[in-house]
Amino acid sequence: MKHSEILGIDIGATGIKGAPVDIMKGELTAGRYKLDTPASGKPKDVVKVVAELVDKFGWTGPVGFGFPGVIQHGVAKTSANLDNDFIGVNLRDLFHETLGLPTYVANDADVAGMAEIAHGRGRGVMATVLMITIGTGLGSALFRDGVLIPNTEFGHLLYKKSVFEHYASNRARKEKKMSWLEWGRQFTIYLNHLNLLLSPDLFILGGGISKKFDLWKTHIKVPVPITDAMLRNDAGIIGAAMYAASKIPASL
Ligand code: BGC
Asked: How confident is the model at residue 233 (pLDDT cuts 50, 70, 90)?
């Protein structure tokens, strides 16, 4: 492969972080930068921060992005935790025009899952693996024998008067000042619901909260093995770069 190093950028509701990634090893090759997501959450402001991040690395090669919404053929179809102005925007084109570099965009949880499947806890697991990223939202990435079914959006399954994301995300835990036990109960209901629907063989639990897995794992009661994401919160950056690597045409 011509591009052994690709810049991965993980766009989140609170932070936009990035780093160059060694695609074969699935490792960051330099320290990551994190900039605040602009309060407006609007495309015109987000692209400015993205450009600043790319500049910090003096990057001139391909860039892969994870975005917190449904992405089909480069176009954002939803935007639950950023501004609705993103809906209908071709992000691949927007980033390409702004940066003047080859750009590739996919859902943030899907790419984080790709990284865990290739280099983390899902490596070599020939079964149904469901990665859940726990942050401002609840992201999902479903794999069967290592193959991704993209844009599953299981954080938006209906629950009570809303969706699970509003009860079991890390944002819900913080906003409702839940103890680990209280949040664990909510998250247990969520994982059991997913188990009922999908019968996964393994749950991989990622997002920033995975760093604290030891504090909450005992509160999760589900009859399926659970594990924390080995690549922690870098899975999104690594996966974004891996996604780009998988899409770069041979001629580039
Ligand atoms: C979005 C998903 C995203 C998840 C994690 C949800 O609100 O709808 O697309 O993967 O948050 O960022």
From this structure: confident
